[in-house]
Amino acid sequence: MKQLLFSILVTGLSATAAQAACYADYKAKQDDPLRLHYGVAEISGDCTVRSAERQLQGRLASQGWTLLNVLSVFDDAGLDERKDSAGDNYLRY
Structure pTM? Predict the structure, then answer.
């Protein structure tokens, strides 16, 4: 029984560790007056543009923003190069 529980625990931890972090960079807007922003956000679940679009639409809308498009999805390796460009919208939404 102990071996079974240990095996389940190790399998669960391995699956969690194997799932890399996922981020998306995107463009959004507000109207009246027109405001645009570029941002970077962490995405949970599938690391796809479609998944990022679904998640970001709700997050941004709750703050009065409309998602224009998701430019790309990427892992930790792409974070540093986008930090300065995203400014205040770096991992904000």
Answer: 0.77
* Number of Cβ atoms within 10 Å of the Cβ of 17: 8
State how far the Cα of 54 lies from the Cα of 31, in Å rounded to an integer. Answer: 21
The whole-number pLDDT of residue 92 equals: 97
Task: Output the CA–CA distances (angstroms, integers) from residue 41 to 3, 7, 57, 88, in the order listed.
Answer: 39, 34, 12, 11
Provide the CB-side half-sphere exposure for 83 (13 A, CA).
6
19-22, Cβ contacts within 8 angstroms, sequence gap of 24 or more: 20/47, 20/75, 20/76, 21/75, 21/76, 22/47, 22/52, 22/73, 22/74, 22/75
